[in-house]
Structure formats: C-alpha cells, structure tokens
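Input sequence (653 aa), recorded before submission:
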Amino acid sequence: MTVELVRGQNHPLPDTRLEIRVSAGHPVVAGATLGDEGGRVPGVEWIAHPGSPSLPGVEVSQQAAADHRLAVDLEAVPAAVHRLSLLLALPVGVGGPTRFGAVAAPFVAVTGLDGTEVASYTITGLDRESAVVALELYRRQGAWKVRAMGQGYEGGLAAMLGDQGLERPADLAATILDAVARGLARSVSAPPPRVPETERVRHSAPAAAPETMAAADSAPTLPVTPPPPPPSTPLPSTPAPSAPAPSGGTTGGGPISYAHPGRRTAAPEPEPRQAPPVPVAGDASGWSMDERLYNQVWGMFEDLARTTAAYRSACDFAESRLDKELDGVLSDPRSRIGGAGDAAREAARARHDELTARAQEVLDRDLAQLAAESEVVEPALPPAYARWDNPVWHAYRVPMEAPMALRLGDLHLPERPDLRIPMLVRLPLERGLWVDSGRGRSEAAGLLDEAELRRLALDTAVAHAARLLAVYPPGEFTVHVVDPAGSGATALAPLVGAGVLAGPPAAGAAGVTAVLAQLTERVDLVQMALRAGAPDALPPGMDTAEQLLIVHDFPHGFDDRAVNQLRYLADEGPAVGVHLLMVADREAASAYGPVLDPLWRSLLRITPVPDDHLADPWVGHAWTYEPPLFPSGSRILPQVLAQVAEARRQWGR
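Predicted structure, token format:
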C-alpha cells in the first residue's frame, strides 16, 4: 500500500527500477542530480535537465510541463552515487507565475514500473520559493530509501544548484532555463475547436425580433452557483419551429427544409426518468479501501456544501427579485392602489414561491441522495473513521499500520441536521488541537455551568487521545499528560488505569517544566538531524514514536518560560512528530494578552458541545461541529485501551 510522506519522512523502496511522477497543475521544470554520500554534486555532468535529459540510471523530460514522468534505474547509477535528488523549478521569462505560493501545491509520487504507487508527497508550505528539492532517493546500508524533502529556494534554480556544491550555478541555471525557453518556443499550440455544423447554421439564421429578445431577457431564471445545475433543474423551453418553407425555397438565407409541408410528424416519446444510482461504499478513487472511503466522505462533504450553497443562492435571488418587483409596484402611482396593484403584488409573490419551490425540490432530491449514501458508507467505515457507536469497534484489533486519516467528530448544516458528515483530518496531524472549555458564543455551552463544561472538554480530549492510540501500531504513538492541579484525575482515569501513558500525569509547576523540557529537546534534536541530512542519526534510546501532549487546565502551573516552550511546540512540533492537545478556556489565559494569539491561531479549535464555528473553504458555510461521544453505559473505551496496552506488552513497547 502506498505511503503518504510528510516532510522529512523516509520510506524503503521495494525495487530499484522506478518511475517518479510529478503533477504540478502548472508547467514546471523537472531535473535530477546525482550526489555523493555527503549530498555534493561533483559537476555539471551529474545533472539531468531539459538541455541534457539523460544520465546513467535517470532520464527526465526535455521541456517544462504540468505533469512529468521520470524513469529511474538505481542499479544503473555509478557506484559513487549515494543520493538522487528530484528538482522542480518554475520557468522564468514566459509570463507565468514566479513563486510556488501562487500555484497549487506540487504532488510527487514514486511508483513501480507497473504503476503501483510506493510513496507520495504533497509539497506544502511553499510561498516565495521558485525552486524546490522535492524528493531524495538515497542509499543506506546497501538499500535504497526515499525521503520527502520539500526544501524550497527563494533564489530559484541558481540558489538550489549552488546549495548542492556546484560551481558557477547562475550560469548553469541560465543554460537550463534557456533550453526550457527553446522547448516552449518550438511547441505548437492546439488548433481552435471545430465549430459544429449546428453552430454554423445558427450563425446564418436571421436575428430574432427585438420584442422576442426582450421577452427572453425578462423570463424568470434560477441563479446557480458552482457546480452546474442538476439535470432535473427546469431549463427554458425551446421555441417551436416555424412552418417549413416549400421545397426548394429559402427563408432569408436560412437552411432549406425538405420536409413535406402537409405531413404531420409525431412528437418524440419523452425519455424515461432515470432513477438515481444506488450508493455503494468505497466507490471513490483510491488504491486501498481506506483511501476510497476517505475520498468518498470528503466528496459527500463537498456535495453537501455546494448543493446547499445553490439552494441558498436561489432563495436569496427570489427574495431580492420579490423586493425589486414590490418596490416597482409601489413607485408607480397608477398601480399603488386598487385592483391592478393587488394583482401585480400577487403575481410577484407567485413567482417568488415558484422559484423557492423549485430550489427546494432540487435540494430535497440531492439531500435524499446524500442521506442514502451516508446510510451505506457509515457502517463500512474502519475504526479510524467510525463513530464510537459503530459495531466495528466490537471487532477492534490493534492495527499494524497507521491509517491515512482520523475522525474528529461530525459536521452538519441547518438544512438537514440529521445528515452528518464525518470530519476527517489527515495523519500525522498537521496542526495541534484545542478543546475549548469556555462558553464562547455557543448556545449549548451557555446552558451548562462552568464545572460541567470543563468536565466535558476533558472527556472530549480523552476520547481523541484514545482514538489516536487505537489507530496507531503498538508503540508508535506516545501520550504525555500535564495536569498541574490534578483536577482531571477522574476523566484521565481510563488512560492511567490502562497503562497507555508515557508516565503519570505531570502535576505542579515542576512537572510541567520537566515534560515541556523533554519534548522541546526532542524537537530540537530531530530538527538538527533533518538539517544535517541524517534523520536516522538520533541519540540511542530516543523514543521515535509520534508524541502527543495533553495540556489540561491551562494556564494554571505555567510561567513565562513554560508558555514560550508551549508556543514553540505548537509551531515547530507537528513537522517532527510532536503534537498538542490543549484543554483550555481562552478567557482564562487573557492575562497574557496578545502574546498567546499565535498559539490559539495555530491550533484547530473544537468544542465539547455542538457549535457552528467551522467554515468550509469553498463557500464559507458555518458548519455545526459535534464532538465524538461514547454511547451511554458503553464499555468500548476500556476495552479498546486494554487491547492497546496488551499489544504494547506483547511487542515490548
């Protein structure tokens, strides 16, 4: 199964004959360098680029393109070569973007010759850089591995080549870009689309009469936001054809009709209305079933967002049109009073009701289809994606491989509150989590007292931590807890009793300081190893598992130094496998002032009660988030944690 890498992560290569695929969404220059054990490239003859596309063991494309396929044969590279780096750069002087922050994140994948994907990497976090080292294939103890690099250069191709130890990198970069420019100049643009016969006939038809055009312009239309309207949306009717001209005659330059003038043709039979397709779990694209289900869930999320946006847009249009027509009636003294005015107002309201009814019909149809799909998909979800009341947890076994995503709760919109879409986030976590124990503006939180809200917040954090422990292989996820006042002992008891924590919850200021110092040192060591190009060169005995720090009752027990360390972990930790799970009330930490604003912004805020604080990136809907809850009286949590603890003992972790 394919592995989706994050920056700095490596993965063994099962074969030496490979293909590297690049998808950038915009033309980029692709090249490769062969380096020694220290990563240094001896000279220009060790670089494959559009002007010199072939080297022993590697071949690249000869011009810039949005998609590339690089052939690699690691057995054919010279024995002195220990590293093969994939370089991507934006072409200059062709009128395109000059920085990667202005285009979609490039995607690279290493595949076998049969197309089976081994590892992939989406190069995120680029901004002003115009060149990037995407991947590195390196030899370690006789075997080859791939490492996700994502090292960008604002100085472009010249700076990247200079960083690899090449002399006169600016001249070499100019040579490469000149070869790219020549390749683009030789390329032939696609011919214009051929005009269909019907279009050519239409252009020669006589123009419509002015009164006919005005009537067409005033016909009611339903505004549609992307995606395009569903097939059942009523479309304007096609005007009936005029009587055919006699055979051999013409009608003002229009096409000749050879139909018999006295023969009546039967109207075509209407096509039967097709039933909506039966939903199937896992029918989205993807290599594994988990990947297909992940893509299907987010496809449902997008469909719900867009169909709701179309419905709201249609209702807004109907309201604005009604207001405009009523204003027109009131502004005309002749129709302000009397029967004419009443008739005009009734006609305007009738048109409004018709538009909203048509929009509601389309919405109901789409929501019914999504609800049917949800009923099929929800029972088929694996534990990482499933709710706690899903029967899949009763057959739970500790996995031997981490999933690609994790469920943090459910999302729904007010148009259909019972249609809930799983909120999935990719693993490893790219941001820390913040369970807000404050009231905020949530109506549900306003109905609870402060103590109950804090208890629910910590229960939510424990549920998230338990799921993370359950979906990772034994020993590959470590959880630390900071509870300075010891007020969370009851909620933390399942984690403590199962023995799945790295140690007892740290209490007091001294305990906070010790845990933060340990994790800060780990971040520093991993970062230094990555910068040195030797991520495997870590101190012996160091825990290489993903780390999660649960912070309860912040800022109690935190001094200024501890607050700075916490901000450092929030900013730098996720890139090297250290994640935060904060349980805090922002107002309780207001004494620190704006110094903590970057901390809150860096974390994904979730709530212990339903709250509509999340927005989607397409149309900005306010989605209601519902936290994961255990069924009343359920024993799922202790059973799952007991299996995690037992698996750790068996594997000596």
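Checked by second reader. The chain is about 35% helix and 20% strand.
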